[in-house]
Design brief:
Chloramphenicol Acetyltransferase; seven-stranded mixed beta sheet
Length: 213
Amino acid sequence: MSETVVYVANLERRPHYEMHRAVDFPHFSLTAPITVTDLLVTVRREKLSLFNAILFCIIRAANAVPEFRIRFRGETVVRHDIVHPSFTVPIAGDRFAFCQASYHEDWPSFDATCRAAGEAASRQTTLDNETEGEDQWIYLSCLPWLDFTAMTHPLANKDDCIPRIAWSKIVEEDARARVSVNLQAHHAIMDGLHAARFFEELQRNLDAFQSSS
């Protein structure tokens, strides 16, 4: 795990950082519709994992926006070189378990890593949080049963600065397919502009997805 200490005094957004570190509810949540028409064609044609393909595009977009890799630990601010996905997988009894996978920039390696991690996690019988005390993650969830328009996520406390990302069921209408993607983030780390950059990057990734990438 490689990271760089970022000095608060040198932050361009220092006033914004300090203001949002002081408030009791510093998080914001945005949900936007994203087009997945081309991705869906590729996934169905090549019999790929739709979950893994969307997860790959999301975590790739998160790594492309530096603010998604910033974390604070007390008064120390760090920026990770890479962040990795920590996501939920279904287990027996209509429950879920946590699963962690390493991010790889190429799809075949990422897909293989996620398949192995997902299969292991699906055999869990309890809810174990193996990421406690670590912050090199993006927390992700999928709700394939519901076309939601907004979401909020549980947080440990007001200093919890790990972004949460969730996506909905896919809706197909008039030869087009869309999915709702939700982002919850700490306002001391990012603003709406950085969130928009993430959504733009995500749409590019989905449009350009190829299984050989």
